[in-house]
Amino acid sequence: MTPEAGFAALAATWPAHALRDLGPVRLRDGAGGGSRVSAATLEGPFDLPGIEAAETAMRAEGRAPLFMVRAGEARLDAALATRGYAVLDPTLILAAPLSALDGITPNANWPPSPAQIAIWADGDIGPARIAVMARIESARAVLAHPGGCAFVANHGEIAMLHALEVSAPVRRRGVGRALMAMAAGWARAEGARVLALAVTRANGSARSLYAGLGYGEVTSYHYRRAPA
Predict the structure, then answer these.
(1) pTM of this structure
(2) Which of 13, 63, 154, 177 meets the CB 3.0–4.6 Å disulfide criterion with 160?
(3) pLDDT, tens digit, 9 for 90 and up, residues 160-178
(4) Distance between CA 40 and CA 51 in Å, rounded?
(5) In Å, how far are 95, 104, 163, 166, 179 from 175, measured between CA atoms?
(6) Average pLDDT, the chain
(7) Which spans in 14-163 are helix H?
């Protein structure tokens, strides 16, 4: 999986409420769904006046300018750093070929049940993020295991896992591993060839789980947020 394919799958399986292009910058309205669906991205050649116009547009909407800076966008990163933007949530996109993953028949449903909504709420995945899941037009499912759940959606040959959450009382009891196996089984049934996910660099326990299952780094990104 290429980095470009990884970012395309990430955007398609966790979509913004609305998009608009302003010069080389793509602006996102996340409708409260978090940084991933709210951050602007550079979609054309680096252009400082274009960055400034995007800043003005975001401030006019009543929010601090926020950019996703992807691997290889050093000029954008440096320009935002010079303007006082802080780094937020350095994140990795990981992936593994389904041919190398163990899969099991998933306990899958859509829409999420009240019990699944409650598990997500405990992990700060609330209605606005569930609304992101509801916007997806491709195949999608909630994966369920006692005490845990996750969301998976398909984009061509790439399935993307999101919002894996395990309740505190059952952590370190194999629930996350079972959900990952369900995700692989679901993705294989949907005709995908790769299963991918995003995880923050700071989430050491999740990264250890994914590494042990055979997931490798494809690319990375972080956010830059303007000073208030």
Answers:
(1) 0.96
(2) 13
(3) 999 999 998 999 889 999 9
(4) 10
(5) 20, 13, 14, 7, 6
(6) 97
(7) 48-60, 74-82, 114-122, 127-135
Cβ atoms of 194 and 184 closer than 8 Å: no
In angstroms, rounded to a whole number, what is the distance separating the alpha carbons of residues 206 and 136?
25
Question: Tens of pLDDT along 16-73?
Answer: 999 999 999 999 999 999 999 999 999 999 999 999 999 999 999 999 999 999 999 9
Helical H segments across 91-165, by residue range: 114-122, 127-135
Distance between CA atoms of residues 186 and 180, nearest Å: 10
Helices (H), the chain: 3-13, 48-60, 74-82, 114-122, 127-135, 175-189, 204-213
Look at the alpha carbons of 52, 10, 129, 35 in this order and tell me if their dihedral is positive or negative: negative
Provide the Cα torsion 150, 5, 57, 73; round to 10°: 120
Segment 132-143 shows an average pLDDT of: 96
Contact between 129 and 13 (Cβ < 8 Å): no
